[in-house]
């Protein structure tokens, strides 16, 4: 029994490392293919519309509701201490650096990433990808590159839209429910929101978009086992993407802030 469990753990580790290697290889190939030859505009246009325009609704609702909750919680905690005027700064800072990029990536993963994996997985189990290869068409160029470019372009834009909706949502609840003035909400933002905060949010959005698209496409390409396999691959892709985004966010937050503090300290010296 013990030997069986050890063998199972060993095989799991081997398969995990093999999968990571294949995934890294896919990212490398996609980068090379994408920048060597851009995909057809018709394919790219469809993905831009699907990832960007079709996600506006869910991203707007998510961003606005998050901003409303942040503002309400901040005012409840700060008003008794006479600090309600920093509510706008707290909402903007949280949305720009953390919640905007992460929650947008989560929403797009649930709406678009799952669909990508299911679509490519269905093509895999029905041998459509083999048919594409037989026609001397690179499946990475045809299937993944348009999604990859569209993700890198649209997800940062969706993140910006989510941040805007969050700040506006926070303003509405602050002004019309808690009677905080517009000046009090917005006046401190230019003083406390730096270009580094904006750059940090943008870098995170780009990194999350790469993870989202490549993981979804990779799991789709590795699908096997018919309809059941497609469902299993789709579930795995969403879960793995969520976890990868959270882990990446942790390391990016530490790395970017450490770099910023070091540069700031060196500049002061």
Question: Strands, helices and their partners?
Answer:
Layout lengths: L1 H35 L4 H11 L4 H23 L8 H39 L2 H7 L4 H38 L5 H5 L2 H4 L2 H27 L4 H43 L1
Which outline best applies?
Answer: elongated
Helical region count?
10
Determine the fraction of residues in helical runs and give it as a percent range: over 70%
Beta strand count: 0
Key features of this structure:
0% strand; mainly alpha; single chain
Description:
There is one protein chain. This protein is mostly helical and 269 residues long. Helices cover 86% and strands 0% of the residues. The chain contains 10 helices and no strands. The protein has helices at 2-36, 41-51, 56-78, 87-125, 128-134, 139-176, 182-186, 189-192, 195-221, 226-268. The N and C termini lie far apart (63 Å).
In short:
With about 270 residues, the chain is mainly alpha-helical. The chain is built from 10 helices and no strands.
């Amino acid at each position: 029994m013990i030997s069986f469990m050890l063998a199972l753990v060993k095989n799991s580790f081997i398969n995990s490392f093999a999968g990571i290697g294949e995934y890294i290889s896919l990212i490398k190939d996609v980068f090379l293919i994408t920048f060597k030859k851009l995909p057809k505009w018709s394919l790219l246009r469809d993905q831009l519309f699907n990832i960007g325009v079709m996600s506006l609704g869910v991203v707007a609702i998510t961003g606005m509701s998050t901003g409303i909750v942040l503002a309400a919680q901040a005012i409840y905690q700060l008003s008794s201490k006479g600090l309600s005027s920093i509510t706008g700064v707290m909402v903007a800072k949280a949305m720009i650096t953390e919640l905007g990029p992460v929650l947008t990536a989560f929403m797009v993963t649930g709406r678009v990433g799952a669909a990508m994996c299911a679509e490519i997985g269905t093509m895999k189990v029905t041998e459509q990808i083999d048919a594409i290869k037989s026609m001397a068409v690179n499946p990475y160029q045809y299937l993944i590159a348009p999604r990859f470019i569209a993700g890198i372009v649209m997800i940062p834009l969706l993140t910006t839209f989510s941040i805007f909706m969050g700040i506006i949502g926070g303003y509405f609840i602050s002004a019309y429910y808690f009677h905080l003035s517009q000046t009090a909400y917005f006046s401190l933002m230019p003083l406390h929101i730096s270009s580094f905060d904006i750059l940090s949010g943008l870098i995170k959005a780009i990194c999350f978009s790469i993870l989202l698209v490549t993981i979804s496409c990779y799991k789709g390409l590795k699908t096997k086992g018919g309809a059941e396999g497609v469902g299993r691959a789709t579930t795995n892709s969403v879960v793995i993407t969520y976890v990868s985004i959270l882990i990446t966010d942790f390391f990016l937050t530490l790395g970017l802030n450490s770099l910023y503090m070091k540069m700031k300290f060196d500049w002061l010296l």
